[in-house]
From TrEMBL:
<dbReference type="GO" id="GO:0006890">
    <property type="term" value="P:retrograde vesicle-mediated transport, Golgi to endoplasmic reticulum"/>
</dbReference>
<feature type="repeat" description="WD">
    <location>
        <begin position="140"/>
        <end position="172"/>
    </location>
</feature>
<feature type="repeat" description="WD">
    <location>
        <begin position="183"/>
        <end position="225"/>
    </location>
</feature>
<dbReference type="InterPro" id="IPR036322">
    <property type="entry name" value="WD40_repeat_dom_sf"/>
</dbReference>
<dbReference type="GO" id="GO:0006886">
    <property type="term" value="P:intracellular protein transport"/>
</dbReference>
<dbReference type="Pfam" id="PF00400">
    <property type="entry name" value="WD40"/>
</dbReference>
<dbReference type="InterPro" id="IPR015943">
    <property type="entry name" value="WD40/YVTN_repeat-like_dom_sf"/>
</dbReference>
<dbReference type="GO" id="GO:0006888">
    <property type="term" value="P:endoplasmic reticulum to Golgi vesicle-mediated transport"/>
</dbReference>
<dbReference type="GO" id="GO:0006891">
    <property type="term" value="P:intra-Golgi vesicle-mediated transport"/>
</dbReference>
<protein>
    <submittedName>
        <fullName>Coatomer subunit beta</fullName>
    </submittedName>
</protein>
<feature type="repeat" description="WD">
    <location>
        <begin position="226"/>
        <end position="269"/>
    </location>
</feature>
<feature type="repeat" description="WD">
    <location>
        <begin position="270"/>
        <end position="311"/>
    </location>
</feature>
<keyword id="KW-0853">WD repeat</keyword>
<dbReference type="InterPro" id="IPR050844">
    <property type="entry name" value="Coatomer_complex_subunit"/>
</dbReference>
<dbReference type="GO" id="GO:0030126">
    <property type="term" value="C:COPI vesicle coat"/>
</dbReference>
<dbReference type="InterPro" id="IPR020472">
    <property type="entry name" value="WD40_PAC1"/>
</dbReference>
<keyword id="KW-0677">Repeat</keyword>
């Protein structure tokens, strides 16, 4: 039997309310103060140490889906009331807002290379909007029941949609939004789909039939099925860092499960939420995973040891979505009563430099080095990027706060 981890933690967050709709950056607290995250024999408390900084709190109707723009400081939010908002998490302002329908918009994604927002709603329609002009450029009936999830392929002109009609469909916008493929096999609502970040031809789906299915583009039937939850599964995500072939899922049995999709086995069960688990996310830059629930909390777990690091509660009722963007520490969380943007971890890396010009630093848990000695007598201006080769030194099992190194290289 696998061990289930419990680690309660209490802290206080101070905040300053400055308007009825937005609380700007004012909250900052620390996740403990111990360097190492590798458990030792008889040591029950070896937590991470990183800051959690709130960048934005925006009140709204119930949030159903979110996305982060990779180039603009934008947070896309689709709402139960049929509206879509785009917030700037830099200026803490609502920069764009438009009505899609009078029914819930359960799915919305940026398509950056086309300047689009693509939405899916309870009227079974997919709509395409230009996010600069807010003009609707296309709409079509995609399913015969509510649309639950949309995924945008990073290189091909495809989107995938999943629905309460128990199907997943592939749409090609270069072929006038032709349905190029239908994926069938689930026996209940398909609540969420997610692309494998390491193999863009593979995706996973979570369903209320209590299964996760893993699919390949080009094949209408699933490669395999993962079973283990006792109730319907609401959410799924792929592990993004390192080489672990892992998936994470959250379900109405209040459990979170971590799966090895190569061995097709559950490797860990995380317990602690008091209600249905509605959102899960592996962080792409930090050694953590995050889970959200109808109990109103977001739990932050260590992705290697699976210990609970902290619990976040912003008082906005049930959690419905967690969104994280590769290459960023920002995390967006959607609730019944609004959305929150937080930044996890330090802004600048821990680093060490010796008299010979050798610099060692930590990019999260990855160690890298350069040697400025190779520049010789080259003249450089302040702020200029230096033409030096970065050498990877591997990763460490801790989240470094400070680094010092021996100049002899040992």
């Amino acid at each position: 039997m696998r061990k289930v981890f419990h680690a309660p933690f209490k802290f206080e967050i101070s905040r300053t309310l400055t308007s009825s709709s937005v609380w700007p950056v004012s909250s900052r607290h620390s996740l403990f103060s111990v360097l190492s995250t590798t458990p030792r024999e008889g040591d029950a408390t070896m937590p991470l140490r990183m800051d959690v900084k709130r960048k934005l709190l925006a009140r709204s109707d119930r949030v159903k889906c979110m996305d982060l723009h990779p180039k603009e400081p934008w947070m896309l939010v689709s709402l139960y009331n049929g509206n879509v908002h785009i917030w700037s998490h830099e200026s803490q302002t609502l920069v764009k807002s438009f009505e899609v329908t009078d029914l819930p918009v359960r799915a919305a994604k940026f398509v950056v290379r086309k300047s689009w927002v693509v939405t899916g709603s309870d009227d079974m329609l997919v709509r395409v909007f230009n996010y600069n002009t807010l003009e609707k450029s296309h709409s079509f009936e995609a399913h015969t029941d509510y649309i639950r999830s949309i995924v945008v392929h990073p290189t091909h002109p495809y989107i995938l949609t999943s629905s309460d009609d128990m199907s997943i469909k592939l749409w090609d916008w270069e072929k006038k939004w032709q349905c190029s493929q239908v994926f069938e096999g689930h026996s209940h609502y398909v609540m969420m789909i997610v692309l494998n970040p390491k193999d863009h031809n593979q995706f996973a789906s979570a369903s209320l039939d209590r299964t996760i299915k893993v699919w390949q583009l080009g094949s209408p039937t699933p490669n395999f099925t993962l079973e283990g939850h006792e109730k319907g599964i609401n959410c799924v995500d792929y592990f993004q860092g390192g080489d672990k072939p892992y998936l994470i899922s959250g379900a109405d049995d209040r459990l979170v499960k971590v799966w090895d999709y190569q061995n097709k086995a559950c490797v860990q069960t995380l317990e602690g939420h008091a209600q249905n688990v509605t959102a899960v996310a592996f962080h792409s830059e930090l050694p953590i995973l995050m889970t959200g629930s109808e109990d109103g909390t977001v739990r932050v777990w260590h992705a290697n040891t699976y210990r609970l690091e902290t619990t976040l509660n912003y008082g906005l009722e049930r959690v419905w979505f967690i969104c994280q963007m590769r290459g960023s520490n920002d995390v967006a969380i959607g609730y019944d009563e609004g959305s929150v943007m937080i930044k996890l971890g330090r802004e600048e890396p821990a680093m060490s430099m010796d008299s010979s010009g050798k610099i060692v630093w930590a990019k999260h848990s990855e160690l890298q080095q350069v040697n400025l000695k190779v520049l010789g007598e080259m003249e450089v201006k302040d702020g200029e990027r230096l033409p030096v080769a970065v050498k990877d030194m591997g990763s460490c099992e801790i989240y470094p706060q400070n680094i010092s190194h021996n100049p002899n290289g040992r």
